[in-house]
Amino acid sequence: MKFSKISIIIGTQKGGTSSLFNYLSQHPQVSKSKMKETDFFLKDGKWGKGIDYYENLYAWDLNKHLTALEASPNYTRSLNNVRKVIQRMKTVDIRYKFIYILRDPVQKIESMRKQGIYQGWYAKYLAKETPNSLPLNVIESVSYAAIVDAFTRNFSREQILLLKTDELKKDVISMTLKCKICPFLEIEPSFEFSLGKIHNSKNSYRTDTIWHYLREARYLNPIKNIFPDSIKNNARNVLARPLMNQDQGKVPPLTDAQKDFIRAMLKDDSHRLETEYSLDISNWDLN
Questions:
Q1: Which CATH number fits domain 5-104+141-195+268-275: 3.40.50.300, 3.30.9.10, 3.30.300.30, 3.40.50.720?
Q2: Name one GO molecular function term (predicted).
Q3: Residues 201-229: pLDDT tens digits?
Q4: Predicted TM-score of the model (pTM)
């Protein structure tokens, strides 16, 4: 391959992957993928295009870049995805670095359900919910220790950086980048990142917005580089508002019994995050 190292933000969905991808993309030693989520190692159609297709997603400059970068949280949406992705990764002779952002499981599922219901893909899971439980496929997406296990069985522990969403908050992200992420990726930690951008506004995933239709029709592509980020972000926040006054009640909240089900199903997994992977999750809603 034309580059020797790829850094992949593997999740979790609704955990801050877009923000971190955009921050790291500013670094002069990082070559970002043309689209944030390449899904190359997951989607059969993309994988079938071969490694040359993947290489061409990056404007790699041997004289300045030290790592390529992509962010594909779908890689860890399920354990089946994880197994498939790892199997394919091992066939490509390249050095991998993985960043896995972990979010409170209850909050993550609530956010994921909302996104999935608006976009339509969660309907099959919603049909399997009961007032007291959730489908096991949904629980898998937050079985963090099990997912990390799969990676550590195939890659060294030193190749995986575990972060909590708390570490990406506005008041601490600069320190997290400088002291944890840049050293892990082996890029210059003294680089000054611009941290004022807003990524994934609260309505950006909805399909009933002007922003969605413009983006899907690719009308934004010719003009996206003309305007500064401040103007684009303001326009996005306006255009991402729903076209119709949809009732938020269309997204049924998790019941208390469902939340208890999540906690019970993840009890052992969460315990192993603390004991085996030294992750402090004391502020998660697990009791």
A1: 3.40.50.300
A2: sulfotransferase activity
A3: 444 555 555 555 565 555 555 665 566 65
A4: 0.84
